[in-house]
């Protein structure tokens, strides 16, 4: 690598500056590096820098990370960055392996980044464009006795082979065979060689000398996992005894080097993961080893207190055994009892680490405990083991665990201050082992009588005002209430609501988060039949204390952006009947929070629920009492304008949706402030941010509904049509364009739209010539149908034919008839069916004798559409969608559920499009007796003829 010292010095300084806490130098350095990345040889310069032992370690690590990210973005061609040249890529590939082998020249952190870099390159080039890699790695394994270097090679191989854990395709299997042929034997060789070195090392051997040996074995186990993931390779099947013998030795041997315990535990965890893989996929081949391994694993768990990763993987292996055909290994009381009392209960009992998380990291604690992300924790996996065993030995497990739970409760009552962990463990077991049914409602628990346990154990914790009561138990009681909310009678839940509200005032973050979550979930409980259990009237007496308590909870340290509290606020405001006085204070409180988060948007989930809360309050209050709109505008306008003027881009999509709501609830005519926003909305520049476009469409449609006559002024209608054209030229936004045009057609009279119809059709047909995707054609059919029902068949046909003589018949045959059956959604189904019916029954163009064939095909498509089963045309929408942790800001648009406007049925007067069809056909046939039965017989396929006859019979109509 021939790189000048001056270049290296400049890069070194830049990487130092990227670590600076001062934003100015940091951004300057980042900008320089971003520009330099386009220069030839830049990646090689980075390799030279990170491999130089004289360069400070922080600089080498920073450059290694930067190098890895450079490869991620530029190794293969992309639209965003120019790729690294082919010549430079070849040099990088040869240097990467060399640097990994020279482990002495870099820190473990640099080695780790180099290993990931090699993996990135390998994903693209290996093996087809990098045939030398595998032989080079194997040769290095054979020739080297330097375990840091060997581990660098194994780490690289491990990274590359991870791709075999994901998809299973013919190409992947071909690559896997290549790797097995070249690496399976060397892997076993180095594994056995290292095992001998470990077995011959005595207590006098320095820990730092044996530690790399255990790390090597861990990497071999991870490679074993990858190479065995898709299928059991013949080589591994032939040498299973050698692998399994060593695996068992690592689980049963006690090693004399306490300081390297974590490395040994990591190896054991990798072994247990391999055992789990074989148990899950190759049970028949593995069965001869199963009993010994099951015994070894549960002895390992009982004899020590393994760290989390080992405990989780070991218990998961036992869980897989418990649910297999070999579950009889657990049938003996001598096994069942010790597993329940010696493995499950100790791993469920709260440990110091859990307490620390409860106190110092409430977000992670709640995420694990309530949201179910604790699947990889020892508490959760221990309960999964218990469930697995109970699947075949329910009565025995119930007897053992119920006795344990009662013992825990007795111990707690005897000395609550000392034995509070017993109560925590008891509640956790009951909750974790609950049986759940659809929708998240808990049906029952085999361990306890839910209502009895709730009244006897949980309610006293909810009602206790003792300041010395452990907060964890308050959280446990609330969690029990949340999980079993459907089983708690309505009168009991309502009587406890004040106690839950009181818990919102506890400063402990987990407790007031759970209290908020409990209230929020209670409002969603449904009884049989789907009706909500609680009504706004049930909640009304509690609002004067509940709403202030929720706002006050946001003032606690670390809860200023508590998403559980804000979600509860959103739910309450969207559920309750908020009076005028309270609505004013609510919007003021939300505005204060919004004003604060605008300064530094950090928590996208919290912010989403914040805007949902604003939207819910507008929907519930302003729509019922328009007099309060002015109060909302006075509070919201300043902060919404700040979002736009200060360019808080994360909030632009939300802001436009809120503005759309305000436009819709405002009585016309709209004041100047709204019309100024309308002018900004029609500017071309406004539509250049893709993430904002759906919200802009939502706002524009609100204006079109509220102030259609304003489009006559200042060329606004032409600008709306230009926006429509802009949107339909992209497949990503074409449906949004049609939403605008549909709203325009619905709200403008023919006197305004007639002069623009030709332009609109021309724009659509120009796009249609090059783009006939199914989504675009469906949108076109819906638009033409809406146009027809609003302005009549003649206006539709004549305006289209103005573009080109007789073009309508071509559009009808090529697109409308052949795609009509694709329409989904009740309103769209009804609209297109009625419009199509009117076309064949009212349009002179279709009733002409020369159009008989097309008329028949059109009827055939209508009948097919109307005969489709109900479930094929109804599109369900979730009641109130939950917002996941992956909500982002700019990458995607997130719709505000509470700011949405339900689409109105443009044909409300027509209840049944089937009846409309047959009555229209009957009326039409009266004027030409005998003509239409013949067309129907010749044009409709037999199934549709029968369907039409059934409809005629059902509605007592005859086509004569």
UniProtKB/TrEMBL annotation:
A GO MF label: nuclear export signal receptor activity
Biological process according to GO: protein export from nucleus; protein import into nucleus
Main localization (coarse): cytoplasm
One CC-aspect GO term: nuclear envelope
Matching SMART domains: IBN_N
Pfam families tied to this protein: CAS_CSE1 (PF03378), Cse1 (PF08506), IBN_N (PF03810)
Annotated localization: Cytoplasm; Nucleus
SUPFAM superfamilies in UniProt: ARM repeat
Domain Importin N-terminal: residue ranges: 29-102
Entry annotated with the keyword rRNA-binding: no
Keywords assigned: Cytoplasm, Nucleus, Protein transport, Transport
Family: Belongs to the XPO2/CSE1 family.
The protein's name: Exportin-2
Species in which this protein is naturally found: Acorus calamus
Encoding gene (name): CAS
């Amino acid at each position: 690598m021939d790189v000048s010292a001056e270049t290296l010095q400049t890069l070194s300084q830049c990487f130092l500056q990227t670590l600076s806490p001062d934003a100015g130098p940091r951004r300057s350095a980042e900008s320089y590096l971003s520009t330099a990345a386009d220069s030839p040889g830049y990646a090689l310069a980075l390799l030279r820098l990170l491999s130089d032992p004289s360069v400070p370690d922080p600089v080498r690590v920073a450059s290694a990370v930067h190098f890895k990210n450079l490869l991620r973005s530029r190794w293969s061609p992309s639209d965003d960055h120019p790729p690294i040249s082919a010549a430079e890529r070849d040099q990088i590939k040869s240097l990467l392996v060399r640097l990994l082998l020279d482990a002495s020249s870099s820190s473990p952190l640099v080695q780790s980044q180099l290993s990931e870099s090699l993996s990135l390159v390998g994903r693209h080039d290996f093996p087809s464009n990098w045939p030398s890699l595998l032989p080079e790695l194997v040769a290095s394994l054979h020739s080297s006795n330097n375990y840091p270097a060997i581990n660098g090679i194994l780490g690289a191989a491990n990274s590359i082979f991870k791709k075999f854990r994901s998809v299973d395709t013919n190409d992947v299997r071909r690559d896997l065979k290549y790797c097995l042929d070249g690496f399976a034997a060397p892997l076993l060789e180095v594994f056995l060689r290292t095992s001998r070195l470990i077995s011959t090392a005595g207590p006098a051997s320095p820990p730092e000398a044996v530690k790399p040996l255990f790390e090597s074995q861990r990497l071999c186990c991870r490679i074993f996992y990858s190479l065995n993931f898709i299928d059991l390779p013949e080589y591994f099947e032939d040498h299973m005894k050698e692998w399994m013998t060593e695996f068992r030795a690592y689980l049963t041997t006690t090693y004399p080097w306490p300081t390297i315990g974590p490395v040994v535990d990591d190896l054991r965890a990798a072994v247990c993961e391999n055992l789990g893989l074989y148990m899950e996929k190759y049970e028949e081949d593995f069965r001869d080893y199963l009993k010994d391994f099951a015994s070894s694993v549960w002895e390992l768990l009982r004899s020590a207190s393994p760290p989390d990763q080992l405990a989780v993987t070991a218990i998961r292996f036992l869980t897989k055994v418990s649910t297999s055909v070999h579950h009889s290994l657990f049938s003996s009381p001598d096994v069942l009892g010790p597993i329940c009392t010696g493995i499950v209960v100790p791993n469920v009992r709260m440990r110091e680490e859990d307490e620390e998380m409860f106190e110092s990291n409430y977000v992670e604690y709640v995420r694990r405990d309530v949201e179910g992300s604790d699947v990889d924790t020892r508490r959760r996996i221990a309960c999964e083991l218990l469930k697995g065993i109970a699947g075949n030995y329910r009565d025995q497990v119930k007897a053992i665990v119920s006795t344990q739970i009662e013992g825990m409760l007795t111990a707690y009552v005897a000395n609550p201050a000392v034995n509070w962990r017993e109560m925590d463990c008891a509640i956790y077991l009951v909750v974790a082992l609950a049986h759940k049914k659809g929708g998240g409602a808990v049906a029952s628990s085999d361990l306890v009588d839910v209502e009895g346990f709730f009244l006897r154990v949980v309610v006293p914790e909810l009602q206790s005002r003792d300041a010395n009561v452990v907060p964890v138990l308050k959280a446990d009681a609330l969690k029990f209430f949340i999980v079993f909310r459907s089983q708690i009678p309505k009168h009991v839940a309502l009587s406890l609501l004040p106690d839950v509200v009181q818990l919102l005032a506890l400063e402990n973050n987990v407790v007031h988060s759970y209290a908020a979550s409990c209230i929020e979930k209670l409002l969603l409980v449904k009884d049989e039949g789907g009706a909500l259990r609680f009504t706004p009237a049930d909640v009304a007496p509690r609002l004067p204390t509940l709403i202030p308590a929720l706002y006050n909870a946001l003032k606690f340290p670390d809860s200023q952006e508590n998403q559980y509290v804000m979600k509860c606020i959103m739910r309450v405001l969207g559920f309750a009947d908020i009076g005028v006085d309270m609505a004013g204070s609510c919007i003021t409180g939300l505005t204060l929070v919004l004003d604060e988060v605008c300064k530094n948007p950090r928590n996208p989930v919290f912010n989403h629920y914040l805007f949902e809360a604003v939207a819910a309050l507008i929907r519930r209050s302003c729509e019922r009492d328009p007099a309060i709109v002015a109060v909302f505008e006075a509070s919201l306008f300043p902060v919404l304008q700040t979002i736009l003027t200060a360019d808080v881009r994360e909030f632009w999509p939300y802001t436009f949706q809120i503005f759309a709501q305000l436009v819709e609830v405002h009585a016309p005519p709209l004041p100047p402030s709204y019309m100024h926003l309308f002018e900004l909305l029609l500017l071309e520049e406004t539509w250049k941010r893709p993430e904002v476009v759906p919200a802009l469409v939502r706002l524009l449609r609100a204006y079109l509904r509220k102030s259609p006559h304003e489009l006559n002024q200042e060329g606004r209608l032409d600008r709306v049509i230009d926006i429509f054209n802009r949107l339909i030229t992209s497949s990503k936004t074409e449906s949004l364009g049609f939403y605008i045009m549909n709203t325009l057609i619905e709200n403008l009279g023919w006197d305004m739209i007639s002069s623009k119809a030709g332009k609109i059709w021309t724009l659509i047909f120009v796009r249609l010539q090059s783009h006939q995707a199914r989504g675009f054609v469906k949108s076109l059919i819906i638009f033409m149908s809406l146009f027809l029902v609003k302005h009549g068949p003649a206006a539709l046909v004549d305006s289209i034919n103005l573009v080109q003589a007789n073009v309508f018949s071509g559009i009808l045959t090529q697109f409308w008839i052949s795609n009509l059956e694709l329409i989904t959604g009740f309103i769209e189904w009804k609209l297109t069916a009625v419009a199509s019916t009117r076309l064949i029954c009212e349009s002179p163009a279709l009733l002409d004798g020369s159009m008989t064939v097309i008329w028949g095909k059109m009827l055939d498509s209508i009948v097919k559409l109307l005969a489709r089963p109900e479930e094929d045309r109804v599109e369900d929408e979730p009641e109130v969608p939950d917002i996941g942790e992956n909500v982002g800001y700019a990458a995607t648009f997130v719709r505000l559920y509470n700011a949405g406007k339900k689409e109105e049925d443009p044909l409300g007067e027509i209840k049944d499009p089937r009846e409309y069809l047959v009555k229209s056909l009957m009326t039409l046939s009266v004027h030409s007796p005998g003509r239409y039965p013949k067309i129907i017989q010749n044009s409709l396929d037999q199934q549709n003829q029968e369907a039409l006859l059934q409809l005629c019979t059902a509605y007592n109509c005859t086509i004569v």
